[in-house]
Fold this sequence. Notes:
Residues 203-241 are annotated as: Disordered. The protein is α/β, with parallel strands linked by helices. The chain contains nine helices and eight strands. The longest helix has 22 residues, at 186-207. The two termini are 34 Å apart.
Amino acid sequence: MAVLLASPLLSAGRPPVKHFINLSNGIEALEPLARAGLAADSVSFVRVQSSHCEARDFDGILSSLDHNLLMHLALGFECRVYDYGSRGNVWENARGEAELRFVPRALWWGLEWARYALHTLWRLPPAREPPTLRGVNVQSLFDAQMRKLPKPLGKRLKYYRPYVAADLAELRLRCFYAETDLDGNREAYGAMLRRYASRAAVSELTHGPPPEPGELGLYEFDRRARRGEGSVPPHTLKRRS
């Protein structure tokens, strides 16, 4: 029987937060996050592609979900995904007025489909509202896609179900966006990533190096090691110490 994990922080209404940069335009969020004081080693990366959304590749979107993101969502973390949009679309604001917003399709389409699929596969409590895309009810569309989900893909996503926090009622997935200034500028993004790597190195110097694996009872795999020869039964051999 699967063991459901309780999350004290979630019960207290204070879920821990994980930050995810959606590649590639989301790289622009690295600089403002750093200025806000977020440590470089608190940032992770995902790649939900708008091209999958445009092609209505439902399976492709789910296949691209990162294991780091999936595990933290299951455990009840608040996962914040950052991305920058290049195409403006008309959206309705809280006052019912039309305004131009640069919400990437990966967020409003891709991750909303992912939210619904994971909610269903992980057997979370019934949602209070049906799934919508830009205000349109897509319950029947999403249900039809769930019925067509390839078995290997469903199995991959169900892997995390035993680790879902017992008090998790809905995925704590939040998406943040802004208009891009550098749409697809790989040179600029490369410079931002190198600065991010430098900040991570400085952070390690400040907090000290990570523990040596040997101190934790772990061994580093030697990729040059050879297979042992002979017919000695494995259970008679001395264990490595």
